[in-house]
Amino acid sequence: MLEHVSADVAASSTPPVREKGTIPEAQAGLWSRLSAALARATRRMGRRCGGEPTASGFVVRGAGPRVPLVYLDLTHLGRHVTGIERVTIEQFERVVFEGAEVRHVRSKGGILGMIVAQQVLLPLIALVRPRAQFVFPGFPPSPFFRLARERVVLYVHDLFLITRPQDLGQKAKLYMARPFGWAVRGLKHFLVNSEKTRAELLPFVRSDARIALYRPGVRNVFSLASGERATRPERPQPVKIVSLGTVEPRKNYRAAAAVVAALDRLLPGGAELHIAGREGWGNDAEILNGLPVVRLHGYLSLESARELIESADLYLTTSHDEGLGLPLLEVQYAGLPVVAPVRRSTMWNGGTPQRAATPCSPRPC
Hints:
The chain folds into two domains: 2-213, Rossmann fold (3-Layer(aba) Sandwich), CATH 3.40.50; 232-350, Glycogen Phosphorylase B (Rossmann fold, 3-Layer(aba) Sandwich), CATH 3.40.50.2000. Helix content is 37%, strand content 15%. It has twelve helices and 13 strands. 32% of the residues are buried.
């Protein structure tokens, strides 16, 4: 399966492949009986439609050779385009996977429609298409897909749903965390966005799991330009600091606000923290709104985000952890210096920093 969906990625990144294993006997027996029943039903359908029966159903006379059929889960798209949605669009929806017939599965009707598509529609497709393969680049799949683990590829952005339960809202705990845990412990094929994510995923997967690196490209998504940055005042008043991302506990914006408040007291012209990102769970947005050095901009269009980034003097992130931290690289198209905590994803992106600070404290280490 992984060969059809990501052959170009697997070939270029040469990911380590763990030794092959087998599906547990009880699980294999259930899936074999289910596949046999579906095959008999589709053969009967094929005879009624004038086709010729095959092992997986029927082929209409005169049709060309069968190519792998891949269903791509895009049911989570249609909301604000943040990190997971953008990766899904750029690395999956807009990519042509040669040698496969890719069908996009979308949802309508808001959150309820998305849940129905993910938990009912996609498993039904898997039942009636026993040879089809499935790619999940966003939300974890229905627990049903553990029975079809050989036909599923899951893209893993990070392991926070398992490793940082304290940073999860109630919705994420109820709908995301448990299915994600079942998926990583039960599926076989995985794509990851960084070596850090791969290392964190490895202890949870089965011994026969295959993990391939499929890292997003660092594009100038905001159409940034450094422009007149070199001619700006050496000591801007105030110093304008920007951060991007959903306002939620994991982003640790309270630490960022503490850093900027300290700078505001030290610098003659003061300092401001501008945060662009939708409001997530928790009361962080309410607390930050009450701080004089913080400006919350909410979710911004690409054009508005570009104007904010280009007008800034510094980019600051104090998040407790990141799977990749792509904005750290993207904002540098504007010639913007970056201040970030020392962690594996940051080191992999930007090399060794000159000075270190922990995300838990604004004081230098």
